[in-house]
Specification:
alpha/beta, Rossmann fold, 12-stranded mixed β-sheet, 12 strands
Length: 242
């Protein structure tokens, strides 16, 4: 696993993501909670806010293991920072709330900030510092490398409904892994993949619906998701499955 991932504190110390500009309408709609250094993800065990750099000047891989709620919440917050969102998925209806949240362009058509695509290779827009790119690969438990992050300001996030041994390469090559509650068998598999101590993979089986483990190089952070009222209107109540 890369050593470049890390959680940031509320002041954004060590941050590498810049401050993107987005319209007031989008900010009002999504109401993201973030700072200059990164994207607010939740609260730590002492109630302190924790954020993470998702959009960075280096190609970045993320893996989200669990329900679709967390992945869609990350998409909303990335969109609110001004990022381009491309969602490659076999279940486009599940992502319609995110598409609708992007609103419409001046021509009355759905905004091109969020694009749904099939699970097949395709050209990507060129990301820049002013317009970073988040590619969401929602392709099941063993994803193919259809959109690997190859350019600065591109992050590819793999959404895994559950852990599978054949997904070990994707998981181990990630800069950041976000884990929701796992059944014992999958928690043990997580322990094997990342060489976790028994008490650590036991903890994965006891997480509540709004709790997440952030895993990275020399990092194991337990946090509680923070969901704004505006996000709840779009996505509903926080939940583990979807």
């Amino acid at each position: 696993m890369s050593s470049s991932s890390r959680l940031l504190d509320a002041r954004g110390r060590g941050a590498v993501a810049p401050e993107f500009l987005v319209s007031p309408t989008m900010l009002d709609l999504v109401s993201p909670s973030g700072d200059r250094g990164g994207m607010m993800l939740g609260q730590g065990t002492k109630g302190e806010p924790l954020s993470v750099s998702v959009l960075r000047p280096t190609p970045t891989r993320m893996v989200v293991v669990g329900g679709l709620y967390l992945a869609r919440q990350i998409a909303l917050r990335a969109m609110a920072t001004g990022a381009w969102i491309i969602i490659a998925t076999g279940r486009p209806q599940a992502w319609q709330p995110v598409v609708r949240a992007a609103g419409q362009g001046a021509d009355g058509r759905p905004s091109q900030l969020v694009q749904l695509r099939r699970l097949s290779p395709a050209d990507l827009p060129r990301p820049t510092e002013d317009m970073p790119l988040l590619v969401i690969h929602d392709g099941g438990h063993v994803p193919q490398e259809l959109f690997p992050p190859r350019a600065p300001w591109q992050t590819t996030m793999y959404v895994l409904p559950y852990l599978h041994p054949q997904a070990s390469s994707t998981a181990n090559n990630a800069d950041l892994v976000l884990l929701q509650r796992l059944p014992m068998g999958q928690a043990q598999l997580a322990g094997q993949m990342w060489r976790l101590r028994p008490q650590m993979f036991q903890q994965l089986t006891q997480l509540k619906d709004d709790q997440v483990i952030a895993l990275g190089q020399d990092m194991w952070a337990h946090l509680r998701l923070y969901t704004t009222p505006a996000e709840q209107q779009i996505l509903g109540a926080v939940r583990r499955g979807d």
